[in-house]
Amino acid sequence: MLGREICEQLAMNGIEFTGSDREVDITDQLSIENFAKRMELEWIINCAAYTAVDLAEKEADIAERINSTGAENLGLYAEKRGAKIVHFSTDYVFDGTKREPYVETDTPNPQSVYGRTKLDGELRLMKAAARYFIIRIAWLYGPFGKNFAATMLRLFGEKDVLTVVADQTGTPTYTRTLAENIVLMVLSATDKYGIYHYTDGGVTTWHGFANEIYRLAEEAGLLKHEVEIKPIPAKDYPTPAKRPAYSVLSKDKVTSALGFAVNDWKDNLKHYFTRLDIK
Ligand SMILES: NC(=O)c1ccc[n+]([C@@H]2O[C@H](COP(=O)([O-])OP(=O)(O)OC[C@H]3O[C@@H](n4cnc5c(N)ncnc54)[C@H](OP(=O)(O)O)[C@@H]3O)[C@@H](O)[C@H]2O)c1
Fold first, then answer.
1. What percent helix, strand, coil does the chain show, rounded to 5?
2. What's the whole-model pTM score?
3. What is the pLDDT of residues 88-137, one digit of tens each?
4. Which CATH architecture is the domain 2-274 placed in?
5. Where in the chain are the domains?
6. HEC string for 131-200
7. Ligand 1 atom showing the smallest separation from residue 145 Cα
8. Which DSSP letter does residue 235 get?
9. Residue of 114, 174, 214, 272 with catalytic role
């Protein structure tokens, strides 16, 4: 989802790059080396990950290999080549017990296998490489992959009543504006390495997010019938992986140190709708 968006933005800005998918296995150092050894290399942008949050509870070994060893392998290779590396992590490294935005110096305490393997990946990458940007994001959505917005749009066509969790608070991250910020960062040649938090602006819940998707879908004439979206507590929607009840991320550091632009989540969602294949 994010990888394709970043490739599009790199291309649109005339930055020379080579995109890859599964043909480079990040869990295998030789695979990375063979892919990149003949390239000039200034930056590595890693969007690969094991992202099936619930399945990870059963597939901890695979998640660990991709999210932890994979991040370390790319860090080692970046270091070997003197390249900078951008890596993405998650709000799920936090336990969600805070009630004000998480800052980069807050102590992580992941509650799921996915969160633990992503945190492990951060730590191993930081040990492996000096020139790293670890960007923790949350509730990612965009036109190129499985995500909450796409799922809601599908369910609006299939159901009359939907129940959506209303006591988990956070902020969505739109792939497009994130990719635009990453491109500007690459062009700026910054060396302000470190961990950063980034999402869209504002605060909502999954239920609030669903309501706004519904409103915009209605406006775009995408609904075939009315759907009731009922708020429910997370305890009534049990999932194998525990999610943080609160995971709003502070954007203070990323805006001041890297100059990232932050758009309100509702404005970004409107933009996402302009890119749907509306017939
Ligand atoms: N999605 C979210 O809500 C969210 C929230 C917070 C943070 N993030 C982080 O944001 C980043 C991008 O997420 P995303 O949602 O764009 O992920 P995604 O759509 O699931 O894409 C991840 C990609 O990594 C590939 N991959 C898996 N194992 C690999 C390996 N060993 N070698 C090379 N590629 C491999 C996957 O291939 P297959 O499809 O073939 O498996 C997939 O194409 C990730 O670091 C993720 O942890 C995501």
1. 45, 15, 40
2. 0.97
3. 999 999 999 999 999 999 999 999 999 999 999 999 999 999 999 999 99
4. 3-Layer(aba) Sandwich (3.40)
5. 2-274
6. CEEEEEECCEECCCCCCHHHHHHHHHHHCCEEEEECCCEECCEEHHHHHHHHHHHHHHCCCCCEEEECCC
7. 19
8. G
9. 114
